[in-house]
Amino acid sequence: MKNKIRDISVALVFLAWIFGFMIFGMILPDKDVSYSERRKLKTFPEIKRETLLDGSFMSDFEKYSADQFPLRESFRKIKSAGEFYIFRQSDSNGVYIHKGYLSGLEKDLDEESLDYAAGRIRFVYEKFLKDKASAVYLSIVPDKNYFLKDTGVPTLDYDRLVSIMREKDDFAEYIDIFPYLELADYYKTDTHWRIEKIGPAAKALAEGMGTTLAGNYEVKEVSALFYGVYSGQLALGSSDEKMYYITSPDIENATVYNAETGKNQGVYDFERADGQDPYEFYLSGPRSMMVIENKNAETDKELIIIRDSFGSSLAPHLIEAYKKITLLDIRYLPAPLLNRFADFEGRDVLFIYSTLILNSSETLT
Predict the structure, then answer these.
(1) Percent of the chain beyond pLDDT 70?
(2) Inter-axis angle of helices 199-208 and 310-318, to 10 degrees?
(3) What whole-number distance in Å separates Cα of residue 14 and Cα of residue 19?
């Protein structure tokens, strides 16, 4: 009898706990965004006859419930901690830790995606650059998983990726920067490289494009700590990564035109260092078009960089070597209309993309 009473009491407590969470969830307003995960959260699905009949309402409601669950961030932390430190799993939420570095589990090499990416680059070349640009270059930024390929961590066939891109875009002179990078050049909690560490890679790029970098810059610390995308996905707590930037007379006196705001700004956006994505500190993050003019330039050379987000922290290194640098991002600009935004006649053009973008290239227009 005592056991029966105890079992009933436990069941009632459990049901009360579940019911309390349901009430708590109904009272709390829905959140639009998960800032730690840097994504939009699911909102309550619209109730329609067709969605009820085809089952999509319940599927969407399940995703909504998971996204709007009370104390969701706390439970995410408990889940990740349990998977890593109790069950000794190699990854949690698709993120693994190796010697303090967080990185995402990669999908297999997607040759269809590479074919599409190479096709968009070739399209831009054929339509705007052929017989117009002074020179055309291609460079690829390796994901930091490249430097973990001998540790047992699952990685792409990077040699195959580079080979495919070089073969399909053989009109561009390829500049290999892989030998000038290492794991320590990347943020521990993010996909991106660190601006203060990539001087050798920037010099290799400059030399490959027929110019040189003195590299006479000062490294300064940003007051805010850096929180990378993997930090939020893993949900295990705060970051102790410091963030830096490089400065020199060329960088300090450069004028940066942001085509999206229609205003001039500095190379660095200090307000964004404390924002949702601290990497947006560099040239205000993902922008369709930015134009950097070096008032101190001792050359008339101009460079057009068609790039992804890695170009935001690369460009400051190159300012000293060019009178003008135009950065274009065809994830946000329609590639068929690029001639409306830049004059390619007599300019050097650099295509630079990370392996992450090339292997998931559907965002390229």
Answers:
(1) 74
(2) 70
(3) 9
Sign of the four-CA dihedral 347, 353, 359, 363: negative
| Domain contains 101 | no
Strand 255-258 vs strand 289-293: parallel, antiparallel, or unpaired?
Answer: antiparallel
How far apart (Å, rounded) are the C-alpha atoms in residues 228 and 189? 5
What is the dihedral angle through the alpha carbons of 25, 26, 31, 35, rounded to the nearest 10 degrees?
0
Tokens 């050097």 correspond to what residue?
348
- Domain annotation covers residue 310: yes
Is the pLDDT at 19 greater than 70? The verdict is no
Residues 139 and 198 in one domain: yes
Give the pLDDT score at 333.
96
Does pLDDT of 45 surpass 80? no
Measured between alpha carbons, how far is 269 from 123 in angstroms, rounded to an integer?
33
| Residue 304, strand partner residues | 326, 349
Contact criterion met (CB below 8 Å) for 312 and 285: yes
Residues 121 and 65 in one domain: no
The pLDDT assigned to 104 comes to 83
What pTM does this model have?
0.81
Beta strands in the chain, from DSSP E residues, in sequence order:
33-34, 39-40, 91-92, 95-98, 101-104, 135-141, 173-174, 218-226, 241-247, 255-258, 263-265, 289-293, 302-307, 324-328, 348-354
pLDDT of residue 293: 98
- In Å, how far are 129, 131, 165, 304, 360 from 91, measured between CA atoms? 44, 49, 30, 39, 21
Q: Nearest-CA neighbor of 94 among 187, 237, 233?
A: 233
Are residues 128 and 52 part of one domain? no
What does the DSSP 8-state code read for residue 127?
I
- Chain length of the chain: 365
Within this chain, do residues 257 and 156 fall inside the same structural domain, yes or no? yes
pLDDT at residue 357 is higher than 70: yes
Q: In what order do the strands lie in the sheet with 324-328?
A: 173-174, 135-141, 348-354, 302-307, 324-328, 289-293, 255-258, 263-265
Residue range(s) defining the domain that contains residue 335 = 109-363
Note the pLDDT tens digit of each residue in 167-190: 999 999 999 999 999 999 999 999
How far, in Å, CA of 287 to CA of 299, rounded? 26
